Amino acid sequence: MRALPALLALLLATPVLAQQAATVHTSVKPETGAVIGQRVAVYIDVLFPGEMLRPPRVVLPEVPGAQVMRFETQATTLSDRIGQRFEFALYARRGGTLTIPGAQATLLDRAGNEIGTVSGSPAQLTIAVPPGVDASQPLIAATRATLEERWTPAPAKALKAGDALVRTITREADDVPAMAMPALAFPAPDGVRVYVDPPQSEDRQNRGAVTGRRVDRVTYVFEAGGRFTLPGVAQPWWDLQARRLHEETRPAVTMSVTAPPKPPDPWLFVGPVLGLLALLLGERWLEPQVRAWYAARHARWLASEAKAFDDLAHACRSDDVRAIYGAFTVWRQRTSRRDGLAPFAEALESVVYAGAAWPAGHGQAFLRSLRALPRFRHRVESALPPLNPLET
Question: Residue 351 in contact with residue 321, Cβ under 8 Å?
Fold first, then answer.
């Protein structure tokens, strides 16, 4: 009779013991011959010696020298073994040997409660640098890549000081998501202000194949008259089928901008008459000037650090981690603060790319931790000039 309770406890613990005996295996495809920027599939197989009570949760730690992400897809059940396969996409950012840390699997019972964890072994991957490729710069490696450019209004249209010109660059690549595409540089000559919008990701998925689409939009505001040349753009990419380097380019654009008209010299003897005339006609004359001034002022605000931080604070009110990560990335690019931000970026990337947990309401805690940084300016200085500058 004494052995009955012990036997019953052993039978009840059998599923848990089976779960704890699970193993984690890591494999990559392709195993050899991968180059910088090419998608490498990382397969994490969680295997069970007996019954799988519930699909586990899997997290792949960060890989130094690479960008790792998991798309919104379900794990697949293995047909020849008891377990599930989880797929991650790895994009190497440097050549040489990369070490993929062992994945961590959280085991669950039938009710979804955690009953243990198991870790896999690290794996290594050798990344080649194709001939002619600058290894210090991010590269797109795909079977197809395109770059399109659109100007609004057309550069041939007559422009005057205060006008804005919008440039839209759209890039597409097979098997490369938008987040893995390198950022483009948009320099400009003196007398032209540049405001870069956050990039837009418009990826498409079809039976596991991803077509990345990234849209970059930049606004040029001409502060004075003259002749200006806006540099062209170039996107190098490695053709995985032809095994050769391509470059998608768009040429520079040169345009003439008319200077604003000089106000007429005042005539003292007709001062009252001109004053009355300005009162009657000034509204029509000033309207386009005010619009141009407001457009330039508003564009500076949209591209300011203060606006970026406001967007970050707004995103933190929700649990949309991708929105928080996007707003944090934009603010980090604009802020003059550089130290102490890496842990925040790593925490967000572990959720966005590696599938780490993000508890409900953690966005506000993330914002409070950010504000608590030493020497953090709680009131970000406005990027706009005062309406009434002080006399010097």
Answer: yes
